[in-house]
């Protein structure tokens, strides 16, 4: 099933909206880059090889079991943050790049997340974690369904 929608190209604000979407995309990309690679919390991490997690869900479960050391709010923020930060990607892939199929959107989300984890590993910044990839792709899937709901509501809205 495709996510294609039919924008009103004759609407007076179409071109303005196109520029706003492009601006929002670059703002999103910049924010994503900052959060993943340069945020203050990243600077306090000391690289150790044992931080790399290649076993799905293992690190997340261990973190929640050790919440007394790390703090439950840090675990929840990490979990939700990894999901939420990728939700907008589906909107941008459809509206800016014209990518409408769910499979392609999910694949691009996966490749972006995998690339981030690979960069973290190669340059020893952050913590490469398979759980981050799973959570990021979950965010992309949620974004796809929110996009579908958004356009369904918009199409059924009386004009």
From TrEMBL:
It comes from the Bacteria. Keywords: Membrane, Transmembrane, Transmembrane helix. Residues 25-150 form the VanZ-like domain. The keyword Transport does not apply. InterPro entries: Teicoplanin_resist-assoc, VanZ-like. The chain crosses the membrane at residues 20-39, 79-98, 105-127, 133-154. This is VanZ family protein. It comes from Hymenobacter volaticus.
């Amino acid at each position: 099933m495709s996510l294609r929608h039919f924008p009103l190209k004759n609407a007076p604000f179409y071109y303005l909206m196109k520029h706003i979407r492009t601006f929002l995309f670059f703002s999103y990309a910049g924010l994503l880059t900052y959060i993943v690679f340069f945020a203050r919390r990243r600077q306090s991490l000391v690289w150790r090889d044992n931080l790399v997690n290649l076993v799905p869900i293992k690190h997340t479960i261990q973190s929640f079991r050790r919440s007394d050391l790390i703090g439950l709010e840090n675990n929840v923020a990490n979990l939700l943050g990894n999901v939420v930060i990728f939700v907008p990607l589906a909107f941008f892939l459809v509206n800016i790049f014209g990518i409408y199929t769910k499979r392609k959107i999910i694949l691009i989300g996966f490749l972006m997340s995998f690339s981030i984890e690979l960069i973290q590993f190669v340059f020893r910044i952050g913590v490469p974690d398979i759980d981050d990839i799973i959570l990021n792709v979950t965010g992309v899937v949620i974004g796809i369904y929110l996009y579908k709901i958004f356009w369904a509501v918009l199409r059924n809205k009386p004009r």
